[in-house]
Write a structure and sequence with these properties.
17 helices; alpha/beta; 2 domains; single chain; binds zinc ion; binds manganese (II) ion; binds ligand BES; Leucine Aminopeptidase, subunit E, domain 1; Aminopeptidase
Amino acid sequence: MDFSIKAFDTKNTLGAAKSGCIAVAVFENKKLSEAAKALDLNGAISAAVKSGDISGKPGSTLLLRGVAGMTASRVLLVGVGADEAISEKSFGSAVTAMLKAFTLLGAQDAIIAFPFENVKGRDLHWAVRSIVVAANDAEFRSDAQKSKKDPAMTGVRKLTLALPANMAATPQLKAVLAQSIAIANGMNLTRELGNLSPNVCTPTYLANTARKLAEDHGFDVEVLDRKQLEALKMGSFLSVTRGSDEPPKFIVLKHMGGKPKDAPTVLVGKGITFDTGGISLKPGPGMDEMKYDMCGAGSVLGTFRAIGEMNIKLNVIGIVAACENMPSGRATKPGDIVTAMNGTTIEILNTDAEGRLVLADALTYAERFKPAAVVDIATLTGACIVALGHHNSGLFTRHDDIHNALADELMDAGAQTGDTAWRLPIGENYNEQLKSNFADLANIGSPGGASCTAAAFLENFTRNYTWAHLDIAGTAWKSGAAKGATGRPVPLLTTFLLNRV
Ligand code: BES
Ligand code: MN
Ligand code: ZN
């Protein structure tokens, strides 16, 4: 999809605009938006609204052809509800319905002349961002491995957002459009990686993807292999990969867009390219979905694509700990005790609690960068889906009090983009649950609060810097008929980094 912004004077130039279609808003009370009024030269639009052919309810649409006095061949009326201060939900339904109508048109391009600035509690920038991301979603197909591709989006491929000149011309808006496109492209990479089958999207595939990103955007990239991981004494990470024939990869990407001396912000992604559970084998039904256990890693790579395209002025380091979790004669057994890179001994009571084991060493490794902050992103626990559903990522930080600056930054970035997170607790009580009779730590807690004990486990490896953990088990993936990766939390992470510039 191709996006642009153009200044239009609704009184004169909108009617003269060359386009396959112009989408304008109408209200439930039969009122027309300013742009609809401007195109209503011979009363065809008001007649259509009065006739009841379009209700104006959010998501209702009506296509008119050959409206007199208008250069564009079609006008699409889109209902946005009763209220002239449009609610966020109504705006969302209107955009979804409009995009659906666009796919059915015999036109290649369209102009959207909406009252973008009238969404309650939101601003123009938010509206532009949400249209770009929604249009990108509507266009996305997960057919990379189909021999016959899904029908491409037939209709509109080129979208122009029409705004009054005083709004369209601001450099801020230009920047917001570029950011939105970068976020959409980053989400697409994350989605593609999450959807690819696990025999294709292996740790090696992730490493090659990182190398390609580095080449495209001028990042530094380093890929450590098993020998190097052994030399670093990453006993916790290596315990997970023991049962697999696929070589593990530890990937480090660097975008040094800030001042050389500025401490970097570090993103750490869980990259389990398939999670069978290991010897603590998962049940068969739905196990295929455990290919998405690399979506933390996928979101780090997607976010790097976005920040690379924008070339943001911030030092950012991405770490991806990638391997498979498989059962075999060589696999780690329940009861095995391993030593993590930082010297902590861990009793592995359940080999299916593997994400925290790979992250433990990746989080220790992050110390060497003297980070300003570290955020890890992981499909860590099924319990997080139970707690928060698919709406919010679980957000954990060390300080359980209300005031935590890093948590606030991440919450704000989520709220700004609709890619929201919700805070959950860690603390001494959860650490108590992780006591082992034989080692410093157990890798699972006593029953209850499994997302919190998982986060509390990670906290043990993050004490030398400011840290937050995002559990994306619920947000990274949609199950059911439309199953697939969502591209979350790339909008949250990218916006978090942008806000730090
Ligand atoms: N990758 C899973 C978590 C998961 C489950 C993500 C379902 C998405 C959907 C993780 O490695 C895991 O298996 N966690 C266990 C932890 C338990 C053994 C303490 C879980 O959630 O059941
Ligand atoms: Mn697991
Ligand atoms: Zn897992």
